[in-house]
């Protein structure tokens, strides 16, 4: 939980407990904390009381009700609970601009349902396979974890042979449209500092869209690779990408992703990444329909 409030206070001291009213949104719950409790213990109590309702990816400020002002004020620096009081947790309304910076250490690639049975139905499927394979090669070169799903593989087949899944962190079957499965969430939790997801595959308006919306709901930044993402219908694809872009998801291209990840001509893997880019698929018209 990211907090924009006072510096943490000292731990509890002096013995005994002090009654405190904890307010969040429309709720107010009386409880108590040890005498001398500081900022950290107040946060822990808020989480214990309201954890199921607090969006862990928001920023908050902790405020104290000041009798002399008859209103809430930001929690004073070094505040310790010494007497009965009322505190509240307030979500900040500041809109954080998504800059879309990518670094290999904080990025994970998601490859969604690039399966054999979709080959005849998905527009430009051969091109998105080619670009997807290039992205996975780039991920291996840069040490970026890759998570792969397959939609009902028993009926729809496995990932196409052209895509090399060597070294993928996870390859999972699914029936849910979104890739955000419990196993995927557990895998992300094991990777320190994950901030950005690079997402590609099919179909743009179904599995890609639902995955992207779930990921940003969890506070992750999502980059959809337009030249590695398609649908059966170009209209469905176009409107899905437009909708997603309006939510703050970044719609970009494979070349932009790979060059952003190396960031410098002097990067030790630049030449190999450059060679991947030079082997680009022929112009398919796919990007003209973004």
UniProtKB/TrEMBL annotation:
Species assigned in the record: Erithacus rubecula
Source organism phylogeny: Eukaryota, Metazoa, Chordata, Craniata, Vertebrata
This protein's name: Isochorismatase domain-containing protein 1
InterPro entries: Isochorismatase-like_dom, Isochorismatase-like_sf, Isochorismatase_domain
Domain Isochorismatase-like: 107-255
Family classification: Belongs to the isochorismatase family.
CDD domains according to UniProt: YcaC_related
């Amino acid at each position: 939980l990211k907090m924009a409030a006072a510096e943490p206070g000292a731990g509890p001291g002096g013995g005994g407990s002090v009654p405190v009213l904890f307010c969040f949104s429309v709720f107010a719950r009386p409880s108590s904390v040890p005498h001398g409790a500081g900022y950290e213990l107040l946060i822990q109590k808020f989480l214990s009381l309201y954890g199921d309702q607090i969006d862990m990816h928001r920023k908050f400020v902790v405020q104290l009700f000041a009798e002399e002002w008859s209103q809430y004020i930001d929690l004073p620096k070094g505040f310790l609970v010494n007497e009965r009081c009322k505190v509240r947790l307030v979500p900040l309304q500041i809109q954080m601009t998504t800059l879309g910076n990518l670094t290999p250490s904080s990025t994970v690639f998601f490859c969604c349902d690039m399966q054999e049975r979709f080959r005849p139905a998905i527009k430009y499927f051969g091109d998105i396979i080619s670009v997807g394979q290039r992205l996975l090669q780039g991920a291996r070169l840069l040490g970026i974890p890759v998570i792969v799903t397959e939609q009902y593989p028993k009926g729809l087949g496995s990932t196409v042979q052209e895509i090399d899944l060597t070294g993928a962190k996870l390859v999972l079957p699914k029936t849910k449209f979104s890739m955000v499965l419990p196993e995927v969430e557990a895998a992300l939790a094991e990777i320190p500092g994950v901030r950005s997801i690079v997402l590609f595959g099919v179909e743009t308006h179904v599995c890609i869209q639902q995955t992207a919306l779930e990921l940003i709901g969890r506070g992750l930044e999502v980059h959809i690779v337009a030249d590695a993402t398609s649908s059966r219908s170009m209209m469905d694809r176009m409107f899905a990408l437009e909708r997603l872009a309006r939510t703050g998801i970044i719609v970009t291209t494979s070349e932009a992703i790979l060059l952003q990840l190396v960031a410098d001509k002097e990067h030790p893997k630049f030449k190999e990444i450059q060679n991947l880019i030079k082997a680009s698929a022929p112009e398919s018209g796919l990007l003209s329909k973004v």
